[in-house]
Specification:
Structural class: mainly alpha
Number of strands: 0
Strand content: under 5%
Order of helices and strands: HHHHHH
Helix content: 55-70%
Length: about 110
């Protein structure tokens, strides 16, 4: 059974632990731009996702579109999947952490 919009929004809020300002600032860094997959060598999917998350944060819940909710589902899925792949050792300066941060989740928080 599909999750309700309310469940999706709740899971999104739990998965994304960076606020809009933190995420905007992060997306401007070289580290943010250095990780992730892209189709044509341009902006990575994670970086694009981060920009989309900022747009969602700037909306009222009543204004969320089906596309916004679909993106929230993708974010939750990515964060949960990627967290399960945590590498050993110090992750502070790892590509793993940087990728998660592009999706709005800082695993060190």
């Amino acid at each position: 059974m599909a999750k309700s919009d309310e469940q999706v929004m709740e899971e999104f809020q739990e998965a994304v632990n960076m606020d809009a300002d933190e995420l905007k600032e992060w997306l401007e860094t070289d580290e943010s731009k250095s990780v992730g997959q892209s189709d044509d060598g341009g902006e990575s999917k994670g970086h694009e996702s981060g920009r989309r998350i900022v747009e969602i944060f700037e909306k009222d819940e009543d204004d969320y579109t089906d596309d916004d909710l679909d993106h929230m589902r993708r974010v939750v899925s990515y964060v949960h999947r990627h967290q399960a792949q945590r590498p050993g050792g110090n992750v502070e300066d790892s590509r793993w952490r940087y990728s998660l941060m592009n999706w709005g989740h800082d695993p060190l928080k």
